[in-house]
Amino acid sequence: MTTHPTHLRLHQFAGFQPGPKLLVSAAVHGNEVSGIAAIRRVIEQLDSGALTLLKGSVTFIPVVNELANRLGRREGDRNLNRNMRPPVIPQDFEDRINTQLCPQLAACDVLLDLHSFQGQGKPFAMLGPRNNDGALEPFMHAEAEGRLALSVGTERIVEGWLSTYALGLARRAERTGDGSRRASLQQDPHYGVGTTEYKRSQRGYGITLECGQHADPEAPEFAYQAILRVMALLGLIAPEAATPRPAGKPELLQLYEVIDREHEGDSFEHAWASFDEVTKGQRIGTRASGEPVLAPDDGRIVFPAANATPGSEWFYLARASDRQIG
């Protein structure tokens, strides 16, 4: 039996000179561990003096979801990176995390949240919305967030998460729920809000960095280099302390569709990797009923999750974005 953790462990370094407040987090999903080793490596270097904090502050949370991490799975009681907000009355373990995590997110200026993904593929960054005053995700730091996304050194940057997720909510709400807390949460319009969306709602900005496949041996090194590049971008450490990002502009894609896995018998046509190309009408998978799941347009498949829990995201679709950053 796994005992539920009773606290959230933070490591903070505060410089003597004023500057930006950075928060770096990992293991929001307990089986996404590449960022843990990367964060601990940076902490050791700051402790030893091998790395010098010039100004501002940096707060590290190596393991956000300790329960899920101990269990070696994505979630403890539920998906922490959905329905993120301070709970009025905590109902589950992830709510208890949020009592401490949300104030930390609100207090920082910039967030770097380190993740990994199930399928094969290369690292990519998730960018927030363009500047807007709409109801879904009003925002005013698109230019700074674009520079942040460019700094980490990925070959691809993806935008459009929350607006795409909102489209899926309408379909999910039409399906009959099972009456559980999970089912009710997944029909809540707030359910698509995770770390970066919550950070933007509290002012400031941040990105989700997908560092590679869960078990990719290169992912911890990529996460480590990304942390240093972000710290250098913000002036927290000297520029020469970080390796320059690769030359050239990354590909910029926009999510436009999300498809849920509805039944355990839903299966993919083959083992998809994030950013595999699909053409209009191409069979992506098959429902348990035998109904084909076809690509509605040319584009890329993103976050394919062959073993997704029924009622949650199976895969996303993306196409080229017309956005200009950097």
From TrEMBL:
Keyword Metal-binding annotated: yes
Annotated stretches, region: Disordered: 176-196
Ranges of residues in domain Succinylglutamate desuccinylase/Aspartoacylase catalytic: 18-116
InterPro entries associated with the record: AstE_AspA_cat (IPR055438), N-alpha-Ac-DABA_deacetylase (IPR053138)
Alphabetical keyword list: Hydrolase, Metal-binding, Zinc
Cofactor(s) of this protein: Zn(2+)
Record's keyword annotation contains Hydrolase: yes
PANTHER family per record: BLL3975 PROTEIN (PTHR37326)
Name this polypeptide is given: Succinylglutamate desuccinylase/aspartoacylase family protein
Organism in which the protein naturally occurs: Roseateles agri
